[in-house]
Amino acid sequence: MRDCRCEIPIESPNPRREGSCVRCGFAINEAWSSNNKTVAEFFGRLKEAVPFDPAIDPLIAEARRRELGGRRRFGNSFHGRENWREGCEEAADGALYAMLQTLVNRRKGESQEIALALTAAHHFAKAHEALRRLGTHDVHAISDFAAEDALAHQDLAPHRDGHISPPSAARD
Ligand SMILES: [Zn+2]
Questions:
Q1: Which of 15, 69, 95, 165 sits at 20 to 30 Å (Cα–Cα) from 85?
Q2: What pLDDT, on a 0 to 100 scale, did the predictor assign at position 147?
Q3: What is the pLDDT of residues 9-63, one digit of tens each?
Q4: Nearest CA to 151 among 127, 123, 116?
Q5: How much is the pTM?
Q6: What spacing in Å lies between the alpha carbon of 19 and ligand 1's midpoint?
Q7: Where are the alpha helices (DSSP H) in 22-157?
Q8: What is the total count of domains within the chain?
Q9: How far is the CA of 25 from the centre of ligand 1 (A)?
Q10: Taken in order 133, 138, 143, 144, is the CA torsion positive or negative?
Q11: Which of 160, 154, 167 is nearest to 121 (CA)?
Q12: How many A from CA of 10 to the centre of ligand 1?
């Protein structure tokens, strides 16, 4: 039996027709569905690439939970969507969330943890760039600029008075 070629395959709710498309009746190839195998394949490769990075496991655990939660609800709708563009929006949101948390910390008079927030924003910028290239098949290596040191020097004292100092005054 040939594979379903519908733009967005819709899996049959009938257990006897599991894995087939209700639109065309053909099989939905599991190699391009979001399922336990394809999710494990992708994140297994990530784990293999950076086996000793402690940041990886919590991300994989949360991503797998979120994929499972969305799988039944969204099915194969991702085939009719520009996933890379959605990812770029999420990356921009992630950088904004980091900024917003510094404002919450500032209001409480706590350490704003600017270095952490900027590190998050920087990694989201890298993710934004890689996702854009994923969508446009631009396979050049993403820009390599080691900014960790520059970011580490941005750990400012909390601004208790609500005054925002310009970056040039931030190193006092
Ligand atoms: Zn189909």
A1: 69
A2: 58
A3: 998 888 898 889 999 999 999 999 999 999 999 999 999 999 999 999 999 999 9
A4: 116
A5: 0.79
A6: 10
A7: 36-49, 56-74, 83-107, 114-136, 148-152
A8: 1
A9: 6
A10: positive
A11: 154
A12: 7
The answer for residues whose C-beta is within 8 angstroms of residue 90's C-beta and 6 or more apart is none
Q: What is the CA radius of gyration of the chain?
A: 21
Cα diameter, the chain: 70
Q: Left, alpha or beta for 162 (phi > 0: left; psi -120 to 50: alpha)?
A: left
The answer to whether position 101 is within a domain reads: yes
Tell me which residue has tokens 């959605």. Answer: 86
Task: Give the pLDDT score at 153.
Answer: 62
Please give the distance, rounded to the nearest whole angstrom, from the Cα atom of residue 65 to the centre of ligand 1: 27
Residue tagged 């979001």 (tokens): 34
What spacing in Å lies between the alpha carbon of 92 and ligand 1's midpoint?
34
pLDDT tens per residue across span 76-115: 999 999 999 999 999 999 999 999 999 999 999 999 999 9
Considering the domain boundaries, does residue 5 fall inside one? no
Task: For residue 12, report the distance from its CA to the centre of ligand 1, in Å.
Answer: 10
Ligand 1 centroid distance, CA of 82 (Å) = 20
Domain boundaries, position 171:
82-172
Task: Name the pLDDT band for 167 (thresholds 50, 70, 90).
Answer: low
Kindly state whether residue 145 falls inside one of the protein's structural domains. Answer: yes
Domain-located, residue 59: no
